[in-house]
Amino acid sequence: xxxxxxxxxxxxxxxxxxxxxxxxxxxxxxxxxxxxxxxxxxxxxxxxxxxxxxxxxxxxxxxxxxxxxxxxxxxxxxxxxxxxxxxxxxxxxxxxxxxxxxxxxxxxxxxxxxxxxxxxxxxxxxxxxxxxxxxxxxxxxxxxxxxxxxxxxxxxx
Length: 157
Prior knowledge:
Elements: H1 2-15, E1 27-31, E2 33-39, E3 42-54, E4 59-66, E5 69-75, E6 77-82, E7 85-96, E8 102-114, E9 121-130, E10 133-141, E11 147-150
Antiparallel strand pairs: 1-3, 1-11, 2-3, 2-10, 3-4, 4-5, 5-7, 6-7, 7-8, 8-9, 9-10
């Protein structure tokens, strides 16, 4: 769990470096369920799905906590066409497999099917293409309630 916490903190610090602004509260959400990440032809099982939103810069990401580290699909453009459907336009991949996170430009999207009250994530699918190849994330929730952690700061700590 320490590696996951370190990875989430590293991603949050990287996300905070952008300069956009939104009024929502910053948060990290953990969801349990069945998860797999396909990265450049290799398939990795996921331990959990990690969702992050940083209100100060408006960036959001869905991450897969895998055996090789945390890989996140990140963007700052989203829409919610229905109360139980959320779509994120992915513009980069955050790779936290080493000592410092790396951001790679990407083009893709994530689609999240959630409960109307937002307490349960039913399914998330992400697909993005980078200069190195295709990445796919598939997550199906196990029916347990999400663990939402509000972040106590709005800027770079």
